[in-house]
Amino acid sequence: MMDAQQDQDGAAGERSLLLVDDDRAFVTRLARAFETRGYPVRAATSVAEGLDAVKHEAPALAVVDMRLEDGNGLQIIEALRAARPDACIVVLTGYGNIATAVTAVKLGAIDYLAKPADVDEIVAALTREGAAPAEPPQNPMSADRVRWEHIQRVYEMCERNVSETARRLSMHRRTLQRILAKRAPR
């Protein structure tokens, strides 16, 4: 009986997961989805909470957002890699670019996924064997959707200020307003 319990605890320890994202609704949904797949989950919504979770008990797996309200997800990657060198870390972000992807991988992330990513994609990234190449997406976003996502990101970065967003995108303010009023393309 005790050996079975220890085996379960050992397996649970190897599946321990830390989720760090400042979008509370998203991290709650993601935590629920991972828990139903049998992962013991600890969620954090800031760099400080994420670092505290790593200090308390370094998880085997982590999904870390790049941009957080109080800092950068790279800080959590560094701390987790120092506390547990064998941890599998996936960076999940809506602000993807090559420079941050390279930095995240150099610091120890095993994959870099752009939002929106579903739980199956994240699980596949976390459980991919060794240096197996990532599968190309089945349904890549259309060019219109990528453009719309970029505009939305810049709009949020500008704290929903239309004039500032239009200036940063080198776009006429009225054109931007029309784009923002429409639904997201598929």
TrEMBL record:
Alphabetized SMART domains for the sequence: REC
Stored Pfam families: Response_reg
Descriptive protein name: ActR/PrrA/RegA family redox response regulator transcription factor
Keyword DNA-binding: yes
Keywords linked to the UniProt accession: DNA-binding, Phosphoprotein
UniProt modified residues of type 4-aspartylphosphate: D65
PANTHER family: REGULATOR OF RPOS, TETRATHIONATE RESPONSE REGULATORY PROTEIN TTRR
Lineage, opening ranks: Bacteria, Pseudomonadati, Pseudomonadota, Alphaproteobacteria, Hyphomicrobiales
CDD domains: REC_RegA-like
SUPFAM superfamilies: CheY-like (SSF52172)
Domain Response regulatory: 16-130
